[in-house]
Amino acid sequence: MKVFGFAGYSNSGKTTLIERLIPRFVAQGLRVSLVKHAHHGFDLDRPGKDSYRHREAGATEVFLVSNQRWVLMHELRDEEEPSLEHQLSLMAPCDLVLVEGFKYTAIPKIEVHRPANGKALLYPDNPNIIAIAADALLQVPLPVLDLNDSETIAAFILEQVGLA
């Protein structure tokens, strides 16, 4: 599986960009998966549902299965957060895994940046950032891609991972 990431501050447009890229990759016949890192606790479950009650009772894993999808919820309890490498080992084979977050994990990534948000660029301190997708012109030593040009960004990613 080829792996390519996206880094950037909240509200920079990472999710929107990825949402626009996935259909482009799929249209080229690629099987695409995604790993999203959440910085805070999250829950896909709801109080009162059977699966929620089972987790609350102490189950380490709850596997929900239907005729349309399945999800495996794993409670870390007192375990450390698993690495991206561990998470990738659990995934079904595909052509391309897009990774949102995991800013400092050693995978090639595009920094998504909006100067209007007033945040500093990540790339000077992150050697894994190989390009910046921005909604303004930037004077940096990396390739700068137009954040609104998903076609060019998709082609850049496919070239970088050897799927072009």
TrEMBL record:
It comes from the Bacteria. GO terms for biological process: Mo-molybdopterin cofactor biosynthetic process. GO terms for molecular function: GTP binding. Pfam families: MobB. CDD domains: MobB. Gene3D superfamilies: P-loop containing nucleotide triphosphate hydrolases (3.40.50.300). Residues 3-135 form the Molybdopterin-guanine dinucleotide biosynthesis protein B (MobB) domain. This is Molybdopterin-guanine dinucleotide biosynthesis adapter protein. It comes from Sterolibacterium denitrificans. The gene is mobB.
